[in-house]
Amino acid sequence: MVEERFLLARERVREIKGESVLQPEFQAYFSKVAAFLDMLCETWDFVAGGEIEKCSIEELRERNYKLYEDILPGHYEESYGDPVYSTQRLGETYGSFLSFLYAELRSLIPFVYELKLEEAVIRLELFLEVYGAFCCQQEENGEQPDVEALKEIVYWYVSDYTKDAAREKIKQMLDPGADFALKIIQGDLSDPRYLYYFGEYVTDNQIETYRHLRSLPEETLQKMADTYTEGYRIGFLVGNKDISKKKTVNIRYCLGFEPMIRKAVENFEKMGLSSTIYRASFGLLQGRGMNRNGYYGAIPNKQYDFDHKDDQGLILDKKLIQVRLEALKEGYEAYKEEAAVFGGPAVAEVFGEAPAELKEKNQAVHLSKAQQKLIVEYMTAAGELQNQYIKGEERSFTIIAFPTPEIGKDFPAIFDQVIRINTLDYKLYQRIQQIIIDTLDQGKYVLVKGMKGNRTNLKVMLHTLTDPKKQTNFENCVADVNIPVGEVFTSPVLTGTEGTLHVSRVYLQELEYKDLSITFQDGMVADYHCSNFSSKEENRKYIQDNVLYHHDTLPLGEFAIGTNTTAFVAARKYGIEDKLPILIAEKTGPHFALGDTCYSHAEEVAVYNPDGKEIIARDNACSIKRKEGDPQAYFNCHTDITIPYDELGEVSVVTGEDRVIPIIEEGRFVLPGCEELNAPLEEIL
Question: What is the pLDDT of residue 479?
Answer without folding.
Answer: 62
